[in-house]
Design a protein that fits this description.
The protein has 163 residues and is of the alpha+beta class. The protein is 45% helix and 30% strand. A hairpin with a 3-residue loop joins strand 2 and strand 3. Helix 3 packs across helix 6.
Length: 163
């Protein structure tokens, strides 16, 4: 029964995301959840919630599909594909992401997204992505820029500030 509830939780999360409904997405997380992907590493629960709010509020030309939702009592997974215009460059991105989830007490306690950074950087950054997307230099620059953007967003939204 718990695996069906966890599968429904993933379904709810991505259905809300497809509508850019960050409030519903954020209710899927435990109060001490963590998130990581290629741009955002080891975010706290508040930072994760702020990230989804920021990404949903800035989304341009956004569509999302998801499939292969699976869940057990403690873990889950899903394949999802967002298509959007990357705001920094105005370039179209079609990312293909594998998500992994860990659950506790009916909520997501840990969420990790995996995608090929080099492929993403080619779409999002164009020539610079083709030339340097494989390098730790560019990957670190993207992470730093993403964190600066997130911290700036959190300053404007005190509900996400850590207490």
């Amino acid at each position: 029964m718990m695996s069906a509830n966890n599968q429904a939780l993933i379904q709810t999360f991505y259905e809300a995301f497809s509508k850019l409904d960050y409030k519903t997405m954020n209710t899927c997380y435990a109060s001490d959840a963590t998130f990581s992907d290629s741009a955002f590493k080891n975010l706290t629960s508040k930072q994760t919630q702020a990230m989804w709010h920021m990404l949903c509020s800035r989304a341009k030309d956004f569509t999302l599909t998801f499939k292969d939702v699976e869940a057990s009592e403690s873990t889950g997974s899903c394949h999802w594909e967002p298509i959007y215009t990357f705001s920094s460059t105005g370039r179209k991105v079609h990312n293909k992401i594998e998500a992994k989830f860990w659950f506790q007490d009916g909520k997501i306690i840990q969420h990790e997204d995996f995608f090929p950074f080099y492929r993403w950087s080619q779409m999002a950054l164009g020539p610079m992505g083709y030339l340097l997307g494989w390098s730790s230099f560019l990957q670190n620059k993207v992470r730093k820029t993403a964190l600066i953007s997130l911290h700036s967003f959190i300053k404007k939204h005190p509900e996400y500030q850590e207490k």
